[in-house]
Backbone:
């Protein structure tokens, strides 16, 4: 069985990695020397053309012999476009763009292949300047720096999902994709992810919620959501669920509870959009930025739209698109909202 442990970071469609090179011991590491950001730069749904941006930031030292390439699955049509530079000075960044023609749908992984070599002289200077390190530890780190004769692989695998509604650097299972209709033109989006939770009690209750969404039964939905929150109140570890191919995904408990909380706010206040808007805005204010924010802003925009607050709706849709620029449905709704002003 293949295990995919998906631990989402701070922003949905921005995958970041800060690395410190080789670890000398589990407790002692070299100073952080780079950060990699990957995001979708643009998306042309007519031609299924995706432009991916990869940005490398230096932190404590210059980088040398840097190369970036994106390895696409066979369903994609792209030529090799490895890009290289010889040096990137400390405090600078370098962005590369990678174009690919995509299939109409995809739910899988891409490989962002990055290699770089920290400047050894600058790294030794950075180590020497850390007052908290003992001379013995510094000598061990200096020995590690001597090995920096070739570029080090610092890339990563990144999930990608696309269909005719959305393109996101995320597995499908973490997207809000269930529909709760409001009228013939608008609907709210909820998180009722497919798959089978390995925790039998949670799976049983979550399945009641899935049924309630399909039935558009708010009382049943709210009851099941309250029970899910109660079942997970003491949990600290990620919650795993199994996919059709027998692989598993581990949903971080913070993401899980935030998603259920958003669902609860929505279904508990379907008859009072203003109250739902206020609660969702308070939810965003009380948390760190994260993957879920795009879906919250999209729902706020929709609730404002049906309340005929078109200027506010446009702003909320714009905030959602800041998180997910490649979201055709919200782009369309934004234009419709703007025309109503």
Residues:
């Amino acid at each position: 069985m293949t295990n995919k442990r998906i631990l989402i970071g701070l922003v949905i469609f921005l995958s970041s990695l800060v690395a410190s090179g080789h670890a000398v011991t589990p407790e002692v590491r070299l100073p952080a020397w780079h950060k990699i950001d990957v995001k979708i730069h643009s998306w042309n749904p007519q031609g299924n053309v995706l432009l991916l941006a990869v940005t490398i930031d230096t932190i404590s030292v210059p980088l040398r012999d840097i190369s970036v390439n994106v390895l696409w699955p066979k369903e994609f049509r792209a030529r090799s476009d490895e890009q290289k530079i010889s040096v990137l000075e400390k405090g600078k960044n370098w962005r590369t763009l990678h174009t690919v023609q995509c299939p109409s749908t995809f739910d899988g992984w891409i490989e962002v292949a990055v290699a770089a070599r920290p400047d050894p002289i600058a790294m030794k200077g950075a180590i020497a300047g850390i007052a908290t390190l003992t001379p013995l530890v510094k000598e061990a780190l200096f020995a590690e720096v001597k090995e920096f004769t070739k570029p080090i692989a610092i890339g990563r695998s990144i999930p990608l999902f696309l269909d005719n509604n959305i393109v996101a650097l995320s597995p499908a299972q973490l997207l809000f994709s269930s529909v709760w209709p409001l009228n013939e033109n608008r609907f709210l989006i909820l998180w009722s992810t497919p798959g089978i939770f390995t925790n039998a009690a949670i799976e049983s209750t979550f399945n009641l919620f899935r049924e309630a969404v399909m039935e558009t039964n708010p009382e049943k939905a709210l009851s099941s959501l309250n029970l899910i929150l109660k079942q997970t109140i003491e949990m600290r570890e990620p919650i795993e669920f199994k996919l059709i191919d027998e692989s598993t995904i581990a949903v971080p408990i913070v993401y899980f509870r935030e998603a259920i909380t958003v669902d609860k706010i929505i279904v508990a206040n379907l008859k009072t959009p203003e109250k739902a808007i206020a609660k969702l805005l308070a939810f965003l204010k009380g948390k760190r930025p994260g993957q879920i924010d795009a879906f919250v802003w999209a729902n706020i925009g929709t609730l404002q739209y049906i309340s005929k607050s078109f200027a506010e709706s446009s702003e909320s849709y714009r905030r959602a698109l800041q998180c997910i620029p490649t979201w055709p449905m919200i782009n369309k709704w934004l234009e419709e909202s703007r025309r109503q002003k």
Summary: The first strand starts at residue 3 and ends at 4. The chain has a mean pLDDT of 87. DSSP finds nine helices and 16 strands in the chain. The two ends are 53 Å apart (CA to CA).
